[in-house]
Design brief:
about 280 residues; mainly alpha; MetI-like fold; 14 helices; about 70% helix
Length: about 280
């Protein structure tokens, strides 16, 4: 390696470090601010280097927002979001993988037409069908329930197509051998196609889990009580009062960020493997 190459590598490393600092600094600022117990001090420190430092860190903000007797019980909102995330991710994996497998191995005459139709549905944004969906939800009596925050999202065209593409890469002879041995249609799906496609399952779990956790507008429309309200909607209530408690707001934001981060770290190995596998096979 020449001297110029080494110099160029150092320049690239410095640029990447600067970019990393730019992206990480807001998260670091949020975490530091959540450990400060004085909202006025947070406002004074903004705009200076002091904003990124806390001399006396405390967890009082987290204790206050998670206290069941507090005005804003974020422990309940957090629980609601976890329930919605878990059920949405599980439902999406089950429904989408079944649909993808049926499209691939099912004996449907309309197979070549049905798949493009399902893919084309992905270009329709949720906002375009939100009002008809809301009207239907009211008529069905599903407003202010967990069901209405989960049901519309468990059959995603994108994830059906994703499972279809991953399952298509499984050698056809494996499934045929199982059928010859007497395995049923769904036995082959459960015991062969699902275990082989763990990377696809992890990818869908991460993407759908993050999307479900960050949902705001739809839960805002369909929830009326704190009993089923997710944390994403509850955080917005901080800005609806005359005085914004920035210390508690930052603590609530950290609380909202951590589960998604942990969720990603758990499944990142499979997520990266699925991307690498798609790149190689593509």
């Amino acid at each position: 390696m020449t001297q110029n190459d080494k110099r160029f590598d150092r320049i690239k490393a410095a640029i990447l470090i600067c970019i990393g600092i730019i992206f990480i600094s807001p998260l670091f600022l949020m975490i530091v601010s959540s450990l400060k117990d004085d909202r006025l001090q947070i406002m004074e420190d903004i705009g200076s280097i002091k904003a990124f430092w806390v001399s006396n860190p405390t967890l009082n903000n987290f204790v206050e927002i998670l206290n069941p007797s507090s005005l804003q019980n974020f422990g309940m909102y957090f629980r609601n979001s976890v329930i919605i995330l878990a059920l949405t991710a599980i439902g999406t994996i089950v429904i989408s993988s079944m649909a993808g497998y049926t499209l691939l191995r099912g004996r449907m005459k309309m197979h070549k037409i049905l798949l493009p139709v399902i893919i084309s549905l992905y270009i329709i944004p949720l906002e375009a069908i939100m009002l008809p969906l809301l009207y239907q939800s009211i008529k069905m009596g599903l407003i202010d329930t967990f069901v209405i925050q989960i049901l519309p999202f468990i059959a995603s065209p994108m994830y059906i197509f994703l499972f279809y593409q991953f399952m298509k890469q499984v050698p056809h002879s494996i499934g045929e051998a199982a059928f010859i041995e007497g395995a049923s249609f769904w036995r082959v799906y459960k015991d062969i196609y699902l275990p082989i496609n763990t990377s696809a399952i992890a990818t869908v779990a991460i993407l759908q889990g993050m999307d479900s956790w960050n949902q705001y507008f739809w839960p805002l429309l369909v929830t009326q009580s704190d009993r089923v309200r997710p944390i994403s909607v509850a955080i917005a209530s901080f800005s609806q009062v005359g005085t914004i408690y920035w210390d508690r707001l930052m603590a609530a934001s950290v609380l909202m960020m951590l589960p998604v981060l942990i969720f990603f770290l758990i499944f990142q190995r499979f997520f990266i493997a699925s991307i690498a596998s798609s790149a190689v096979k593509g």
